[in-house]
C-alpha cells in the first residue's frame, strides 16, 4: 500500500514500512519519468474473435459463448466453430451442460481462441447419513471432504477442481478390515473389487470405454499400481478417489483406472506458504518425481534471418506479444541495446501492463542504465501497485533489492529504501530463476525435482488455476520467479510440460537463470524455447554444485 502525503511517500511492504521519498517534486519527477513518453492508443472497437471448441480431440457443438454483461452471444456450430464480436477488456464465457464453464479476458491482440473444454462430472457421489445431527457429523464430514489436499502430481481443491472427487473420512476406517482394498467397499461411489482377479476398480475411471483398468494407489505421495500392504488403517486421515480423465491424466496411463489417494495422520501434507517461494523449503512434503521427463531440445533457433522475419512481422502487425518474443531473442543473443528498444516499443503499446514496467526496467539494468531502471520501478510502485504477493510485484521488489544491495552508487538511489531482507547475506541465494512467456494464453506445468526426488509442480492452465490466469491478464503479467536458496548435493531437475496457447502460434518461453544470485560473482544465463506441438514432459534444465562452479 502506498500513501501520498504533503511531504513524503510511505511504502508498506507487509509489516515493513519505509519512507522512500522526501521531496514531492521528486515524486512527480519519478511518476512522470516515463509515463508521458509512452502514450497508449486504446482501441475499444468491437472486433471478431473466432476459434473452435474441442474436448479430447473431438469438436464440441452447441457451446454457448457470451460476452459477459452484454447481450452479445453465439453458439458453436456442428464443427465446433464460432465467431463473436468483443472488445479489449471484456470477458468471454464458454459454457455447456457437460463441461466446466471457462472464462477468458480479451486482450488487445486477441483474435483467435481455440478452447479445450474441461470435463464436468455430474455423477452423484456417495451420501452418508448419520443420525447424530444434520448440522453436526454430516456438515463436519462435508467440510473435511471439501478441503484442498496435495497429491504427488500437485494440489487438488475439490470445490474448484471441475470434477467429482470421492472422499472417505479416516474415522470410517478401522483395523477390523483385512486391507485398505476391502475397507473401501461400499464407501466410494463406483468402487468395487473384482471377484476373479481380486483387483479394485472405479467406475468412470477409464481412458477407454472398451477396456477396464484397475485403480492405482498413492499413500502420502508415494504412487504405485500395487495395493499398499501393511498399512495401519487406524492411522488413515483421509481417502480421496480421482476417477475422471481430468483428474487422472497427470498420472499417465498408469492412472487410467483412477487413483485412490490416501493421506495418513503421520504423513499428511500441510506445507506452510512462505512469503517468497524458496524451493528447498517446499520439500517437507512427499511429492515424488515419477521419472517421466524425456531429453528433448526445444531451444529456439537464434538464426539472424529468422529473427529478422519475426521482427518484420511484429512491427507490421504492431503485435506486443511478437515484440516480446523478439526482445527475448535479442536477450538470448546478448544484444542489450536492441532489447531495450523493443521493450520501449512494447511499453508504448501496453503502458498499463505490470510486465511492461518490469521488462523495460530490467532491460535498462542489463544495459547498465541503472538510474533509468530504478526510476521506472519506482514509478510502478508509486502508482499504488501491490508488491507483497508472489507474482510480478515480488519480481520487481527483488530486482529493486538487487540494485539497493549491489548497485546503490551507480543507481543514485535518493530514497530511503528498506528491503525485505535485513542484510545482503540474507538476500543472497544459490540460484534464482525467472520464467517468462510471450503470450498470456500459454498453458504449461513446471516441475522442480529436488536431489531426493521430491517434486513441486507449478500449474499454469485454465483447468488447474483459472483465477491465476485471470489475475495475470487483469494486472498484465506473464512471468514467475523461483529461488533455490541452497542447491546442496545431487541434481535438481526442472521439467516442463507444454499444453498449448489457444492459437495456431508458437509460445516463446524464456528462462533466465541467475547463478550465485546477489553475490559478488553473480552470473546470468538466458535460454529461449520455442514451443508449439510439444505435449509431453521434457527436461528443461539441470542444476547442481558442479554447474554452479562453472559460473564462478
Describe this structure in a few short sentences.
With 552 residues, this protein is of the alpha+beta class. It is globular, with a radius of gyration of 26 Å.
What does this structure look like?
- The chain has 552 residues and is of the alpha+beta class.
- The chain folds into 3 domains: 47-119, Carboxypeptidase-like, regulatory domain (Immunoglobulin-like, Sandwich); 134-270, TonB-dependent receptor, plug domain (Ferric Hydroxamate Uptake Protein, Chain A, domain 1); 304-550, Serine Threonine Protein Phosphatase 5, Tetratricopeptide repeat.
- It is 25% helix and 28% strand.
- The chain is built from 14 helices and 29 strands.
- The strands form 8 sheets. It has a 5-stranded antiparallel β-sheet. A 5-stranded mixed β-sheet has the order 15-20-21-18-19, covered by helices on one side. Strands 4, 5, 8 and 11 form a 4-stranded mixed β-sheet that branches.
- The two termini are 39 Å apart.
Name the CATH class of the largest domain. Mainly Alpha
As laid out across the biggest beta sheet, the strand order is 7-6-9-10-12
Specify the CATH homologous superfamily of the largest domain: Tetratricopeptide repeat domain
Largest sheet: 5 strands, antiparallel
Amino acid at each position: 500500500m502506498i500513501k501520498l502525503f504533503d511531504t513524503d511517500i510511505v511504502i508498506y511492504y507487509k509489516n515493513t514500512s519505509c519512507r522512500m521519498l522526501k521531496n514531492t517534486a521528486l515524486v512527480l519527477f519519478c511518476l512522470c519519468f516515463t509515463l508521458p513518453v509512452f502514450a497508449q492508443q486504446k482501441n475499444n472497437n468491437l472486433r471478431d474473435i473466432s476459434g473452435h471448441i474441442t474436448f479430447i480431440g473431438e469438436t464440441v457443438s452447441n457451446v454457448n459463448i457470451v460476452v459477459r454483461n452484454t447481450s452479445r452471444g453465439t453458439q458453436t456450430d456442428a464443427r465446433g466453430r464460432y465467431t463473436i464480436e468483443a472488445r479489449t477488456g471484456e470477458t468471454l464465457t464458454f459454457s455447456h451442460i457437460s463441461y466446466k464453464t471457462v472464462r477468458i479476458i480479451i486482450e488487445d491482440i486477441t483474435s483467435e481462441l481455440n478452447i479445450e473444454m474441461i470435463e464436468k462430472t455430474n455423477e452423484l457421489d456417495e451420501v452418508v447419513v448419520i443420525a447424530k445431527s444434520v448440522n453436526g457429523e454430516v456438515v463436519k464430514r462435508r467440510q473435511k471432504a471439501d478441503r484442498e489436499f496435495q497429491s504427488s502430481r500437485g494440489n487438488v481443491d475439490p470445490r474448484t477442481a471441475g470434477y467429482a472427487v470421492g472422499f472417505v473420512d479416516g474415522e470410517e476406517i478401522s483395523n477390523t478390515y483385512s486391507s485398505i482394498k476391502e475397507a473401501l467397499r461400499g464407501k466410494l461411489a463406483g468402487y468395487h473389487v473384482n471377484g476373479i482377479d481380486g483387483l479394485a476398480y472405479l467406475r468412470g475411471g477409464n481412458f477407454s470405454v472398451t477396456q477396464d483398468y484397475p485403480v492405482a494407489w498413492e499413500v502420502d505421495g508415494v504412487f504405485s499400481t500395487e495395493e499398499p500392504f501393511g498399512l495401519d488403517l487406524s492411522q488413515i486421515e483421509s481417502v480421496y478417489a480421482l476417477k475422471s480423465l481430468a483428474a487422472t491424466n497427470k498420472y499417465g496411463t498408469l492412472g487410467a483406472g483412477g487413483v485412490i489417494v490416501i493421506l495418513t495422520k503421520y504423513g499428511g501434507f500441510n506445507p506452510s506458504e512462505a512469503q517468497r517461494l524458496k524451493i528447498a523449503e517446499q520439500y517437507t512434503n512427499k511429492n515424488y518425481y515419477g521419472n517421466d521427463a524425456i531429453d528433448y531440445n526445444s531451444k529456439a533457433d537464434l538464426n539472424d534471418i529468422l529473427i529478422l522475419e519475426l521482427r518484420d512481422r511484429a512491427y507490421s502487425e504492431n503485435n506486443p506479444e511478437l515484440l516480446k518474443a523478439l526482445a527475448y531473442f535479442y536477450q538470448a543473443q546478448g544484444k542489450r541495446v536492441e532489447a531495450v528498444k523493443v521493450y520501449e516499443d512494447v511499453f508504448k503499446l501496453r503502458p498499463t501492463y505490470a510486465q511492461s514496467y518490469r521488462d523495460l526496467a530490467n532491460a535498462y539494468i542489463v544495459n547498465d542504465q541503472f538510474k533509468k531502471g530504478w526510476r521506472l520501478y519506482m514509478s510502478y510502485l508509486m502508482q499504488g501497485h501491490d508488491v507483497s504477493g508472489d507474482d510480478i510485484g515480488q519480481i520487481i521488489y527483488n530486482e529493486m533489492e538487487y540494485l539497493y544491495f549491489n548497485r546503490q552508487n551507480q543507481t543514485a538511489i535518493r530514497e530511503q529504501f528498506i528491503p525485505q531482507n535485513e542484510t545482503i547475506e540474507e538476500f543472497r541465494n544459490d540460484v534464482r530463476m525467472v520464467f517468462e512467456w510471450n503470450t498470456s494464453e500459454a498453458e504449461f506445468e513446471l516441475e522442480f525435482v529436488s536431489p531426493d526426488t521430491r517434486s513441486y509442480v507449478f500449474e499454469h492452465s485454465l483447468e488447474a488455476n483459472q483465477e491465476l490466469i485471470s489475475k495475470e491478464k487483469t494486472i498484465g503479467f506473464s512471468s514467475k520467479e523461483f529461488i533455490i536458496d541452497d542447491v546442496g548435493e545431487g541434481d535438481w531437475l526442472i521439467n516442463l510440460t507444454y499444453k498449448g496457447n489457444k492459437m495456431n502460434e508458437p509460445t516463446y518461453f524464456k528462462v533466465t537463470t541467475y547463478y550465485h544470485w546477489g553475490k559478488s560473482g553473480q552470473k546470468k544465463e538466458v535460454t529461449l524455447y520455442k514451443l508449439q506441438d510439444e505435449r509431453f514432459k521434457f527436461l528443461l534444465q539441470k542444476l547442481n554444485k558442479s554447474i554452479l562452479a562453472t559460473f564462478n
